[in-house]
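Dear colleague,

Following up on Tuesday's group meeting, I ran the structure prediction for the two-component complex that the binding team flagged. I've pasted the input sequences exactly as they went in, so you can double-check that nothing got truncated or mislabelled along the way. The structure tokens for the whole assembly follow below. Feel free to forward this to whoever is handling the docking comparison.

Inputs:
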Amino acid sequence: MNKAAEIYKRLLIRAYQIDKVYFGGQTAVEGKALCLDSSAAAAAAAGEQLVEKVEIEILPPGCLGREVYTILDIIPVAAKVLGRLGEGITHTLTGVYFILTAADASGRPLAQFGSSAGVLKDKLKLGRPGTPGEGDRIILCQATIAAGAGFKREGIMAVHRAADSIIQQVRDCLKGLDGKGCTEEHLYVEKPTPGRKKVVLVKLLAGQGAMHDNLVLPIEPCGFKGGHSIIDLANMPLLLTPNEYRDGALKAMT
Amino acid sequence: MGVGPSTKETTLHHFRDPLAALLGSDDEFELSGVIVAGISADYAGKSFTAARIGAWISAMNLDGAVVSMDSWGNSHIDFSLLLEQLHRLRMPAVGLCFKEEHSDYILTSRFKGAVIDTSKADSKRETEMVGENTVTPMDARKALAMLKLTARKQT
């Protein structure tokens, strides 16, 4: 492989551990502490017509006694520092994850075939690849969607967009972090490996509507903006490079 | 959440997917790519998507495929149609999905291949606990071992 192709196929992910999350006047990452703008939730709700309210709560490790709405997604904070998705450098936070929940203002449960609304400790299995670990902090974003909009794609999209605008503030801070201060570093280089068996991973994902949707290839890792809905793609298969997938090319909308 | 809370893969799951991590670091395999496809509501859509994935995999000149699905119910039709398609193409394949108490009816009537059950609760039912019945690193290791065996058997 020539030098130019080698650079194109390199992805470096740097992780920064967070041990403290608190509210303040401006979103910032300082050392192992994350400060969240206390007015971010109100601003996010104000920016969306179909979102009536967003409430943010910081849950320290072990505090899972909180009653929550239906869980829509668990989102890591990751930001593109250099290059496009799947190449270059990405910064991400460990030790803290966003959980997005939502309810319809009319009181209709936002769920089908089982609901994850209830007390968090009964509705969340910690320590799975897709859920926070026991020692992690949770930023709980609880959104209320305008009555009736919770079962329409526009309503679900609006909630994810609102949450993404809050996360984007943290991403913007991550972009400026010094690479030397990271707690983990992972380099992925895609290169031909003669003699090995070539395999593909096929992911079949929900694409039936509203809560059954996924976005592919957003601009920011694990982001919303710029992502293509798998429903709009008519459920057609799409090929991602392994590094695109590792770099947060899939955003679950469920 | 959609169908259903305990099987759905979150954005965090995709970001640190144990299957991609393991396939990407195994000495015997080279992960060529990740194909993502949606599950349709009607049978025509399900069958169409399975055929398109099959054609793509066939053209990629691969040695194997791992098929993972984070849904259940009528989605098991999409899953088994794809495994059936890969079987027809003589492509070694392993599937992973949540098998609830009635899904064997769909899965075994169409395809008797290697399928790993990702359900963790004894009830074999939707437990409504986010993350509980998703693919774990142990499930991923089983899938890889099974793919190695299946590939050896077919060559």
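DSSP finds five helices and 18 strands in chain A.

Cheers,
M.
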